[in-house]
Design brief:
Length: 197
């Protein structure tokens, strides 16, 4: 089966944010983002590799992410405020992008502790989902896994139109142990059947 190559813009602008795809030159601002939020993210993080706090580590990761983006296998966007464009305040990941009969991906996201409570992640996710469901990218399904105790994140995905599909037991290892997660999905009602189907 011939698979069409998906396309999505490397930069997405919203009223308050610029969402940028990964570039190796962003290593210092990305390292700063993670350093500022180490304690904030710790309860939700998987085990972090050695060197995670160093810009050199992030330069390598960002280069790999750029290749994934170009291949259509993973789209990562960094959130930068329009008024302070050299400061990363968040990250959105569409990973494990599969085509064929699936046309789906997994959604991940994180936001700077100091940027919470202003609707910024809702604004950013709405824009990324719209781009992922647009005809050029044409995903059919986006799945988000959220820990049951994360009421704020559950409210966020529900406001974005995701539906609760149930509990996945011991789904991901984060915060130091295997954790149950609720699975939320959103479907693309405007999905375009590929011409070769």
């Amino acid at each position: 089966m011939r698979v069409s190559r998906p396309r999505i813009a490397r930069t997405i602008d919203t009223p308050r944010l610029r969402l940028r795809a990964s570039e190796a030159a962003m290593a210092h601002v990305v390292a700063d983002y993670f350093a500022r939020n180490r304690a904030h993210f710790a309860p939700w993080d998987p085990p972090l590799p050695s060197g995670h706090g160093e810009p050199a580590f992030h330069a390598g990761q960002l280069a790999e992410q750029r290749e994934l983006f170009a291949s259509g296998l993973g789209w990562i966007f960094w959130l930068l405020p329009r008024d302070t464009p050299r400061r990363v305040i968040g990250k959105i990941t569409l990973s494990n992008i599969l085509r064929g009969p699936f046309h789906s991906c997994h959604l991940g996201y994180g936001l700077d502790e100091q940027a919470q409570g202003r609707g910024l992640m809702h604004e950013a996710l709405a824009a990324v989902i719209a781009a992922a469901f647009a005809p050029k990218a044409n995903l059919h399904r986006i799945q988000a896994a959220v820990r049951p105790e994360n009421a704020r994140s559950i409210a966020l995905v529900q406001r974005l139109g995701f539906h609760d599909e149930g509990l996945a037991r011991a789904y991901l290892f984060n915060g130091g142990r295997w954790r149950d997660h609720r699975i939320f999905t959103r479907l693309n009602d405007a999905f375009v059947l590929p011409a070769d189907w």
